[in-house]
Amino acid sequence: MDFLAQLATGFIGLFQAGGETFVGLVTGILPLLIVLMTAVNSLIKIIGEDRVERAAKFSSKNFILRYTVLPVLAMFFLTNPMAYTFGRFVEEKHKAAFYDSAVSFCHPITGLFPHANPGELFVYLGIAAGLTTLGLPLGDLAVRYFIAGVLVILLRGIVTERIYAVMASKKENAEVK
């Protein structure tokens, strides 16, 4: 009988812990995300959607900008998953590489701009909790994570663009035969 009582207590305890976590999110991160999303949407309206789109088109012309600035702007302004719609500004042959860059930036942006991808925030907050426990600052982690992310998305974009070009040329050669 004690076993069943302990099992029932543990079962209810699981839901109590879930409820406490939920309340922590509602009073902690959710208001922050709502305010950040409102601020970003306001910024887009202030700047003008047409200007944001022009900046995106300009960024798609150069490969460095295409795989650094464009994905960063897309994730910051449109957030995940809408960021991938910035792919409409790149040529067809660059779409796969742009997508690879943008999707690879979902994690690194969360430390500085959690509104961009709240779904990834749990991973960052897990790492941040460990650093906080050790008494280390989170700002350094967020900035380094962001910079490393920009370098990684540039490399991934270049490599994916090259892979796509090789595969497209093989397909083209196969169709000619």
Topology:
Blueprint: H1 2-27, H2 29-47, H3 49-59, H4 63-66, H5 69-78, H6 95-104, H7 121-133, H8 138-176
Helix pairs in contact: 2-3, 5-6, 6-8
Please provide a written account of the structure:
It is a single chain. The protein is mainly α. It has helices at residues 2-27, 29-47, 49-59, 63-66, 69-78, 95-104, 121-133, 138-176. Helix 2 (29-47) crosses helix 3 (49-59), helix 5 (69-78) crosses helix 6 and helix 6 (95-104) runs antiparallel to helix 8 (138-176). The radius of gyration is 21 Å and the shape is extended. 22% of the residues are buried. The model has no long low-confidence stretch (mean pLDDT 85).
Order of helices and strands: HHHHHHHH
Strand-residue proportion: under 5%
The first-to-last residue Cα distance is 77 Å
The low-confidence parts are none
The total beta strand count reads 0
Q: Percentage of helical residues?
A: over 70%
Class by alpha and beta content: mainly alpha
CA radius of gyration is 21 Å
Mean pLDDT, all residues = 85
Enumerate how many helices there are, as a single number: 8
